[in-house]
Amino acid sequence: MSRIALVDDDRNILTSVAMTLEAEGFEVETFNDGQSALDAFNKRLPDMAVLDIKMPRMDGMDLLQRLRQKTSMPIIFLTSKDDEIDEVLGLRMGADDYVKKPFSQRLLVERIRALLRRQEVIAADDAGDVEDSKVMVRGELSMDPLRHAVVWKGRDVSLTVTEFLLLQALATRPGFVKSRDQLMDVAYDDQVYVDDRTIDSHIKRLRKKMRSVDDEFSAIETLYGIGYRYNEE
After folding, report:
1. Residues 176, 180, 184, CA angle at the centre, nearest 5°?
2. What is the pTM of this model?
3. Is 143 helix (H, G, I), strand (E, B) or coil?
4. What confidence tens digit (pLDDT) does each residue in 163-202 have?
5. Among 94, 48, 78, 87, which Cα is nearest to 196's?
6. 176 phi and psi, to 5 degrees?
7. DSSP state of 134
8. Per residue in 79-117, pLDDT tens?
9. How far is CA 41 from the centre of its chain?
10. Which helix (H) or strand (E) is 221 found in, with range?
11. Which of 46, 68, 130, 227 is a plausible cystine mate for 179, CB 3.0–4.6 Å?
């Protein structure tokens, strides 16, 4: 049973979403501000977190940033209906997905299930394809799907589930272009729609993390209007 943490200062949302998720078989923890959630997470991390943006004591962006310093667990953030700035900023800071308020609870459940399935694929060993479980080496890049581990030029790089899947998709066939639609298929469930901006934000975040260990990292090339390509160095 997966444990989902809901963090939102709207008690009505906490109550209704928690009831829905529990009916779907999830174990649910609720928090009405970012600080209380962080205190609990420091003792025991959930399998996934759903964070509101605007909260007292510690907002969702601050909580997201602190969590990304210690974990790559899937994170969905909730954003107001018309605030595109929150969406882009949240993705660049390391969120895996976002859902706009007001939202369909069924949509949120599907997004949660999609992220958990993707995490299971990365973590799978005996149940997975033996070939897919092998460590992939592309020049200075090494990726171990079983351990969700990425090494670039001998240095560890911590990636989220989404970032790992995107890098894996690009690096599997160096020199070949992956369109944004193809990357969407890799990173997201068929029942989940995301736009081009979401993929672009994840790629920018991915590049930033790679450059944090190597200022000259340039293996991911943008082909404007087409997609992205991994060039083996």
Report:
1. 110
2. 0.62
3. strand
4. 888 999 999 999 999 998 888 887 765 545 566 677 888 8
5. 87
6. -95, 140
7. S
8. 875 566 566 667 777 788 888 888 888 889 988 988 888
9. 18
10. strand 220-223
11. 227
Q: Nearest 10 degrees: CA dihedral of 146, 142, 171, 91?
A: 70
Q: What is the b/e burial string over 133-164, where b = at least 16 CB atoms within 10 angstroms of the residue's CB?
A: eeeeebeebbbebeebebbbeeeebbbbbbbb
In the 8-state DSSP scheme, what is residue 5?
A: E
Place of tokens 């174990």: 27
Angle at 146 between CA 51 and CA 111, to 5 degrees: 30
| Vertex 78: Cα angle to 73 and 80 (nearest 5) | 160
Distance CA 186, CA 211 (A): 23
Closest C-alpha to 17, from 30, 32, 35, 34: 30
Residues 6+ apart with CB under 8 A from 83: 53
CA distance 98 to 88: 9
Residue with tokens 């999609």: 114
Q: What is the DSSP string of 163-174?
A: HHHHHHHHHHST
Type of residue at 102: P
**133 or 221, higher pLDDT:** 221
